[in-house]
Design a protein that fits this description.
single chain, alpha/beta, about 45% helix, globular, Prot-tyrosine_phosphatase-like, Dual specificity phosphatase, catalytic domain, Tyr_Pase_AS
Length: about 160
């Protein structure tokens, strides 16, 4: 788990599981379908029905649980998921709450959400996507976005700035 901005931390599923009892007052964003979204909604097949009201995002106590996979194609990363995560981070930090964003390995989805938050609500990252990516990688060295996540970031960067 690495702090990337005051009170904003990014990490992996292992970080969450090892510190689960310490996150009681934090906002925890679980940016991974497996196992958390599946557990929260209780589905056993490949996916929950697209008609389910929590198909994309489930809220449980202090957790925002995202139906987010590390897709190869950016088209499979819903804007609604990323926008909601960024908005929830912003609101929690404004309340003085600590935020932990994690995905399974902590390399792609969770740091991408943190980078988008920082690009949207702070002046820490440069305007250029490539420069911002380099700067963010210096802040969070494990950052290695997969193809779809990288494409999504590139596409959304200027829209969010």
């Amino acid at each position: 788990m690495i702090q990337v901005y005051p009170n904003l931390f990014v990490g992996s599923q292992d970080d969450y599981e090892m510190g689960r009892n310490e996150f009681g007052s934090w906002l925890v964003i679980q940016a991974c379908k497996e196992p958390y979204h599946r557990q929260a909604l209780g589905y056993t097949g490949r996916a929950v029905s697209k008609d389910h009201p929590e198909y994309l995002i489930a809220k449980r106590d202090n957790r925002l649980i995202l139906n987010l996979v590390d897709a190869a194609d950016p088209a499979y990363i819903p804007d609604e998921i990323m926008d909601t995560a960024i908005s929830e981070i912003h609101a929690a930090l404004a309340r003085g709450q600590q935020v932990f964003v994690h995905c399974n390995q902590g390399h792609s989805r969770s740091p991408a959400i943190a980078m988008l938050y920082m690009g949207t609500h702070t002046d820490v990252l440069p305007l250029s996507f490539e420069d911002a990516r380099v700067t963010f990688s210096g802040i969070y060295p494990p950052f290695a976005p997969a193809g779809g996540t990288s494409g999504f970031l590139r596409r959304r960067w200027l829209l969010l700035r």
